[in-house]
């Protein structure tokens, strides 16, 4: 049986600030050696050359090494997933997950938060966007579910991943070995890596059958309702964190999920919070959360038809500010208006993650 989970959200005061994590450990809220995952937002550009993710990663791992007993190699295996770009009102922050000893958590047979993680096989540049990547991601999701003690895919409410994208160096590597790549546009490869990973998650959870290579990035009717996929230059395998609920684990926390049908769908966020177990009125207000919401995690995407609720927008035609940044700022504002807190996890590039123009939402609540 997996151990119960403690989860806390902490601010990042600068790009290499891990003082919030150090404080949690010093105050004995959690132990360094029991930290099993971190999911956070950094303030870089969110693009291929966003090195704030690397700076934040180093800072958090340094704290885990300094305050724990795990070897550097063991600390390196802890999944720390950073999504770059805090456009608009989104505030840099991290959500830290750690296990607790069984006697350190509330005992209950009700469904409570559980976390499992895994690393896929190495993803070669020529795998990205193709069936090989889908299969490798699906295998890693199955392993992470097993480690979380989840047997029913319906109990999975959030799958956060980090995968490699294509760079000039890796494209050259593939070509040097006589291989081809899906695209030679490195920024486009971010959307590609995320979308292909989401299909792997959907296949693993039985949401869809195995898609054909030509459906990747083209058949937007194929998607996962719980996938949240990010990519970057700092790894060469899929880093998978499965978060769901299991009975008998114990603890105070529970997770739920919902779907935003478009960029303005506040109800999709509220439905995720309700699905996590909070009893809310018919027309909820941030005050109704009463401090019980730990965080929400959202993916967003500019609709391929260039409209929201029938109204035309110019995001996809804007040559000055990439649509990634515009839709992220928009959905971040919508999410913050629901939660009353700008420290929300909003990540862009949501191909195959929720319906076109919308995206999945996960919410973690403290049930006390």
Tell me, rounded to a whole number, the average pLDDT. 96
User: Level of helix content?
Assistant: 25-40%
End-to-end separation: 21 Å
- SSE run: EHEHHEEEHEHHEEEHEEEHEE
Structural class: alpha+beta
Helical stretch tally: 8
Poorly predicted ranges: none
In what order do the strands lie side by side in the largest sheet? Answer: 1-4-2-3
Number of strands: 14
Beta fraction of the residues?
Answer: 25-35%
Rg, Å, rounded: 19 Å
Main β-sheet description:
4 strands, mixed
Secondary structure topology:
Blueprint: E1 5-11, H1 19-26, E2 35-42, H2 52-67, H3 72-76, E3 80-84, E4 93-99, E5 112-122, H4 131-148, E6 156-164, H5 168-176, H6 186-204, E7 227-232, E8 237-246, E9 253-260, H7 266-275, E10 293-300, E11 307-308, E12 311-312, H8 323-339, E13 345-348, E14 359-366
Parallel strand pairs: 2-3, 6-7, 10-13
Antiparallel strand pairs: 1-4, 2-4, 5-8, 6-8, 9-14, 10-14, 11-12
Helix pairs in contact: 1-2, 4-6
